[in-house]
Amino acid sequence: MTKISRNVNDIVLKLASGAFRDTNLELFGVKTPKIKELISVELPVVEASESRADFIFLLEDDSYLHFEFETGYNVSSLIKAAIYNLRLYERDGRQVRSVIIYTADVKTRPKGLNIGSLEYSPDMIMMADYDGDAVYRDLDAKIKGGQELADIDILNLIFLPLMRHSIDRKELTEKSIELAQTITDERKRSISLAATYSFATKYLDAANLRKLKEVIRKMTLIEMVVEDVMVERMYENMVETAKKFLSLGVGTEIVAKGTGLDEFAVRELKEELLVGSH
Q1: What is the pLDDT along the chain (278 residues), one digit of tens a residue?
Q2: Domain range list for the chain
Q3: Residues 6+ apart with CB under 8 A from 158
Q4: Using alpha carbons only, how large is the chain's radius of gyration in Å?
Q5: Residue 211 CB coordination number (10 Å)
């Protein structure tokens, strides 16, 4: 068994991985052997940025499933994912299957990467193909009707905020959390909450994550694993990074995009710096 880290985020990820154990992604058109467990894998960094995949699962055939989330398409992300796969294979000698989940922001299925002698062809799951409004109505009816949720329902609930929908993704994430809180099965409720929150860290900015945490903080289990320090430290780090860039004269729009803070917050930080310099 993989040892569970004391790090809060690792605990959340470990709990979230229960949604995938003994399942595959056939629901989303990707056929793989069943998932055995989540693997904690950190490879030596070769760049200034951290090199860590979103999820690495060990499959029943002892190969790896490399699981990534993307809210947009760009070639550099494919290159980084391909490099990660190569380094993972170099280190462990296991076959690596790569799956990229593109949120509904990406409307057209991207192409893989072909540089001549090497080709990177990940499976791609396009959330734009799934009607989040219909999925929500179906799940809401099942839970209110007291029906037991199957594995496919749990996966649909977790992926719901990534799907095509008519309301803001932040609002839909909150609705998913609220819906998950009403699940009577304790294990399924815990897994759904942890996985939904964990995935939200991939597509919500720090400010909205702080708000989302308020929605779930009353749940006893989530209070244990999603401690204040998790989001607070993330937010504080973004603020400190923003301040450094602003002090170097970088524009507020660029700083906002680079840190994940909204422009209004960045402008306020800039004003604070200007006041403090006088």
Answers
A1: 233 233 445 545 555 666 676 676 777 788 888 888 777 655 544 343 444 457 788 888 999 988 888 888 888 889 988 988 998 898 889 999 999 989 898 999 998 899 999 999 999 999 999 999 999 999 999 988 988 888 788 888 888 888 999 988 888 888 888 888 888 887 788 778 777 877 787 777 777 777 666 666 655 445 444 444 445 556 677 788 888 888 888 888 888 777 777 677 788 888 888 876 65
A2: 8-227, 231-277
A3: 19, 176, 192, 195, 196, 199
A4: 20
A5: 13
Show Cβ contacts of residue 246 under 8 Å, excluding neighbours closer than 6 positions: 252, 255, 266, 269, 270, 273
Render 160-203 in DSSP notation, one character per residue. Answer: GGGSB-SS-HHHHHHHHHHHHHT-SSHHHHHHHHHHHHHHHHHH
Q: Enter the pTM of the model.
A: 0.66
Question: Could you give the C-alpha distances from 241 to 174, 264, 269, in angstroms and in order?
Answer: 28, 16, 11
Closest CA to 60 of 89, 91, 32: 32
Token pair for residue 63? 């190969």
- 74 Cβ neighbours under 8 A, 6+ residues apart: none
Return the DSSP state at 147. Answer: P
- The structure tokens listed for 128 are 């734009």
Using CA atoms, how far apart are residues 53 and 66, in angstroms rounded to an integer? 7
The strand pair at 55-59 and 64-70 is best described as antiparallel
Q: Enter the tokens of residue 52.
A: 């860590």
